[in-house]
Design brief:
Layout (H helix, E strand, L loop, with lengths): L14 E8 L2 E8 L2 H7 L15 E3 L4 E2 L2 H8 L5 H11 L1 E3 L2 H22 E2 L9 H31 L1 H14 L18 H15 L5 E2 L2 E8 H4 L16 H5 L3 H8 L2 E8 L2 E8 L1 H15 L4 E6 L8
Antiparallel strand pairs: 1-2, 1-5, 3-4, 6-7, 8-10, 8-11, 9-10
Length: 316
């Protein structure tokens, strides 16, 4: 007896789904694994290498194609199928498997650790830490946050059983509110944010909590300015990052005085003709304020050139 099989059934294997809700309907397209991210990053430019089948579905798993009437209502009657597919591919939500998600998380984690390790140094020796030490320090911060969250839940549960204790805790919390600024937290890497953004968060948490002694690696700059401008007086107070013990005196000093308040360590200072040049080290957090000051007080005639984004001492 012959076995009848549906001739129009499409077997999709090794598939990644991209879903998008539009006009109260959810649409799906079937793509090859790893190709969607390559398409969105610009690495892959051939659409045929991304799509398993050039069609839009209501359910890929059931093989249920989206009716033309639904597509017309959601995307417009005159919108070509290729444009609909591209909109879903570019703006839709990528559904990935557990292994693929784990690989993506591991990749971002490694990127974050590499960025942080290249930007932070031991404040005493100015030497970089190994990626392993940075990884352990971030794990320590993450564990501390998890412990604090667990304790908070336990306290909340205990308070719900003891209203009097809850009232006392609320009074204590209210009394301490505003006295202490909450420090940056680190709870671990996620796949929904860029590695660069998460690396900045990780650095802020490490600097705030100091599980190991760390500080931002200083920038090395070359600052140039016409000598006549250097002698102009500045009455505005120093901006954040440029304050010092003699801030009041510096506040009423010259343009040169103000520029030097931003430079932590002067490497070289000289005058060539009618131009003054200083090379030195600046904290990254003070760079924006420094460039804004130079731009506003020299009318574009002065400049700050970055020679090294992060100065570190490498082990021999």
């Amino acid at each position: 007896m012959p076995i009848n099989q549906p001739s129009n059934q499409i077997k999709l294997t090794n598939v990644s789904l991209v879903r998008m809700k539009k006009g109260k309907k959810r649409y799906e397209i079937a793509c090859y694994k790893n190709k969607v991210l390559e398409w969105r990053s610009g690495v892959e430019k051939d659409l045929d290498n991304v799509l398993q089948i050039p069609n839009v579905f209501l359910s890929v798993s059931k093989g249920q194609a989206a009716p033309h009437q639904d597509l017309a209502k959601s995307f417009g009657a005159k919108t070509p199928m290729d444009d609909i597919i591209l909109e879903i591919l570019n703006k839709g939500e990528l559904q990935v498997g557990e292994k693929e998600r784990h690989a993506q998380l591991e990749r971002i984690h490694n990127e974050v650790i590499d960025i942080v390790a290249g930007k932070l140094v031991d404040p005493t020796t100015k030497r970089v830490y190994t990626t392993g030490m940075i990884d352990k320090a971030l794990d320590q911060l993450s564990s501390q946050i998890q412990t604090q969250q667990a304790e908070a839940k336990a306290d909340a549960a205990a308070a719900s059983r003891d209203p009097a204790a809850k009232t006392a805790d609320d009074a204590t919390a209210t009394e301490g509110k505003g006295k202490a600024k909450e420090l940056p937290k680190w709870t671990g890497v996620v796949t929904t944010k860029s590695a660069k953004s998460q690396a900045l968060d990780a650095m802020k948490a490490l600097i705030a909590h100091q599980p190991i002694p760390v500080s931002r690696a200083r920038m090395r700059l070359r600052i140039t300015c016409p000598t006549p401008i250097l002698k102009q007086s500045v009455k505005a107070p120093p901006k954040a990052g440029g304050e010092s013990a003699d801030g009041e005196e510096k506040a009423h000093g010259t343009v040169k005085d103000r520029i030097l308040t931003y430079v932590e360590e002067v490497e070289k200072q000289e005058v060539a003709g009618d131009e003054w040049e200083v090379t030195g080290f600046v904290e990254p957090g003070a760079y924006k304020a420094l460039t804004e000051f130079i731009g506003s007080h020299t009318k574009g005639r002065g400049r700050a050139e970055v020679l090294d984004m992060a100065v570190v001492h490498e082990d021999d």
